[in-house]
Write a structure and sequence with these properties.
By secondary structure, the protein is α/β, with parallel strands linked by helices. It has ten helices and nine strands. A seven-stranded mixed sheet has the order 1-3-2-4-5-8-9, with helices on both faces.
Length: 254
């Protein structure tokens, strides 16, 4: 699948991969900063943003989407920067096609199985009645029981209002895929030998000390950074700090 992309800048290619319920625009601030020195391509993963919808939603399939899109744009090898679900997609791409990935930065996720999550959000989003004249305030109120204001605002970026309100994302496909997205597929792969950086939010528990062993088993050159003043959405919580970490990693030698 060729994914929708937002591209800017010139230089070495860098692909930005968003998390669950996200879109390329989530990286707008980071993309503008990196575009001063790099060719930055922010992607909408399948079933998200303006990319096509598909019933199959697995990490190998999404990794191939990313590689196919970058190949079609003449942007390989590329550095991959992925957050959460996008981080797992980036890891899978590096393991499946190491020659296509120049370096790998994974934001607040590990190659492990996590407990099932986000079913309450998906159910609440699905339950919003998409009637003509639906207002943002009404949609926000429908999500108030399951999410704080910041998360509600993030989720509602995916809802198009007007005469015929609709979700841009494929809620049915995403909901069905949630167990697979929380998991990490066991595959017979050779460890990725390129540079890898795992960035954890200081207020997040997505990357734990126990995860370092499985990370290093697949990414033997992995280094670890903890970003202060940040939770799981570290690029939104501390955008300047996260951008500085990304810039330093991209500028580092092999």
């Amino acid at each position: 699948m060729i994914l929708h992309a937002v591209e800017s800048g010139t230089g070495a290619p860098v692909a930005l991969l968003h998390g669950l319920f996200g879109q390329a625009a989530n990286f707008g601030t980071l993309q503008r900063r990196l575009s001063a020195t790099c060719r930055v391509i922010a992607l909408d993963l399948r079933n998200h943003g303006d990319s096509r919808h598909a019933p199959t939603m697995t990490y190998p399939a999404m990794a191939e989407d990313v590689l196919e899109t970058l190949r079609e744009r003449g942007a390989l090898p590329a550095a991959l920067v992925g957050h959460s679900m996008g981080g797992k997609v980036a890891m899978m791409a590096a393991l499946e096609a190491p020659a296509a990935v120049a370096r790998l930065l994974v934001a607040d996720i590990a190659p492990v199985r996590y407990p099932p999550a986000h079913h309450d959000l998906a159910a609440a989003m699905t339950a919003i009645p998409l009637h003509p004249g639906l207002t943002r305030a009404q949609a926000d109120a429908a999500l108030a029981a399951v999410a704080p204001p910041g998360v509600r605002a993030f989720l509602l970026q995916n809802l198009r209002f007007g005469a015929a309100p609709r979700w841009r994302i494929d809620l049915a496909a995403i909901t069905a895929a949630l167990p697979r997205l929380a998991d990490w597929p066991e595959r017979d792969v050779v460890p990725y030998a390129g540079p890898a950086l795992f960035v954890a939010g200081a207020r997040s528990d997505y990357i734990r000390p126990a995860h370092r062993a499985p990370i290093r088993a697949l990414f033997p050159r992995a280094r670890f950074v903890t970003l202060k003043d940040a939770g799981h959405w570290l690029h939104a919580d501390n955008p300047a700090g996260f951008a500085a970490v990304v810039e330093a990693f991209l500028a580092a030698g092999s």
